[in-house]
Write a structure and sequence with these properties.
Order of helices and strands: EHEHEEHHHHEEEHHHEHEHHHEH
Oligomer: single chain
Number of strands: 10
Structural class: alpha/beta
CATH topology: Rossmann fold
Strand order of the largest sheet: 3-4-2-7-1-8-9-10
Protein name: ArsA-related P-loop ATPase
Organism: Angustibacter luteus
Mean pLDDT: 84
Helix content: 40-55%
Number of domains: 1
Low-confidence stretches: 1-16, 109-125
Shape: elongated
CATH class: Alpha Beta
InterPro entries: ArsA/GET3_ATPase-like, ATPase_ArsA/GET3, P-loop_NTPase
CATH superfamily: P-loop containing nucleotide triphosphate hydrolases
Distance between the termini: 15 Å
Number of helices: 14
Length: about 350
């Protein structure tokens, strides 16, 4: 459960929650590969979809993560409804494809119509999105920007958009679209679009959340990611610590257990009291497990101090032994809601 002051909100009798991100309409979720960023993005979308609100969950890496988590067909370039929120809202999904985004862009600004299809047949679309990665990122973020800004009947079509973004190592370059196109397009429609996207991304309507595990490499990548985002003026959101394990040993015994100083006689008595006969080999196994557990907990505590030093809201999701399914996503969504992230 949450341990920082910014993430201590829980439900009240009126089902009113303190929220850390009121006013944010674009939630960008990033993290080192393997930390569970797609799972967190999906859970956050479910948590945000409440009381009639509409939330769009988007992905840009063609990994089909949304389809796998929600057990639905792979979303295409047209938004489709994939789930209900925690209490009455709706979650829609969109997979942003760079080729489709470029064709849409060419039609929007240059009215190419069928000529755009001919360009795709001759490979020009693949060439354009491969040779100019900065333009590719403008096209991907541009579609997300359009979804955030789209209105119908005077109000936004989506109350919030959640972007399952590239990994932390690439997130600043992906979002810093102005720098990426500076040498490619100094004027014209694509430069204008990059400027508009940048205005949104650097505004209070956007928050970039980072997902990590309490392990050295993910934590270091999180620290580097926060520093990189801040350096270019992108708004850092919260940090989601995923797969948090509950300590088994009392705090006072961790240091000695980590050095292998475990009371073997006490373990033997415990096995006997549980009606489990034991041999010395059984005690050896349990001593080893206790030592490794203590070492792991102490390591996680040190890494958690690094995360807390960022002075950002921190949210915790527990370790899970089962595969993530839709039911798991709803449980995680409720935990994020209770901690004030949505």
């Amino acid at each position: 459960m949450p341990t920082t002051a910014a993430a201590t909100a829980s439900a009240t009798a009126g089902d009113v929650h303190e929220r850390d991100w009121d006013g944010v309409r674009l939630h960008v979720v990033t993290g080192k590969g393997g930390t569970g960023k797609t799972t967190v993005a999906a859970a956050l979308a479910l948590a945000l979809a409440e009381r009639g609100k509409r939330v769009l969950l988007t992905e840009v890496e063609e990994r089909q993560g949304i389809a796998q988590l929600f057990d639905v067909p792979q979303p295409g370039y047209d938004e489709v409804r994939i789930a209900n929120g925690l209490d009455g809202g709706e979650v829609f999904a969109l997979a942003v494809d760079p080729k489709a985004a470029l064709l849409e862009y060419l039609q929007m600004f240059y009215k190419l119509g069928r000529a755009g299809g001919l360009l795709e047949r001759f490979g020009a679309i693949d060439f354009a999105t491969t040779i100019a990665p900065g333009v590719r990122d403008v096209l991907l973020t541009g579609k997300v920007y359009e979804a955030v800004r789209r209105r119908s009947g005077g109000r936004p079509v989506y109350d919030a958009v959640v972007l399952d973004a590239p990994a932390t190592g690439r997130i600043t370059r992906f979002l810093d679209v102005n720098s990426e196109v500076a040498g490619l397009a100094r004027v014209g429609p694509i430069r204008h679009q990059a400027d508009s996207i940048t205005t949104l991304l650097r505004s209070p309507q956007t928050a970039v959340h980072l997902v990590t595990l309490l392990e050295e490499m993910p934590v270091q990548e999180t620290l580097d990611g926060v520093a990189s985002l801040r350096a270019v003026g992108l708004p850092v959101g919260g940090v989601v610590v995923n797969q948090v394990r509950e300590p088994i040993l009392p705090a006072g015994r961790l240091a000695s257990a980590a050095k292998g100083k475990v009371n073997r006689a006490e373990i033997g008595r415990g096995l006997q009291a549980a009606g489990l006969g034991h041999a010395e080999s059984d005690v050896d196994v349990l001593v080893t497990e206790a030592t490794e557990h203590a070492q792991r907990v102490l390591l996680e505590q040190r890494e958690r101090q690094e995360i807390d030093a960022l002075a950002r809201p921190v949210y915790e999701l527990p370790a899970r032994s089962e595969l993530v399914d839709v039911g798991t996503l709803y449980r995680l969504a409720e935990l994020l809601r209770e901690q004030g992230m949505a």
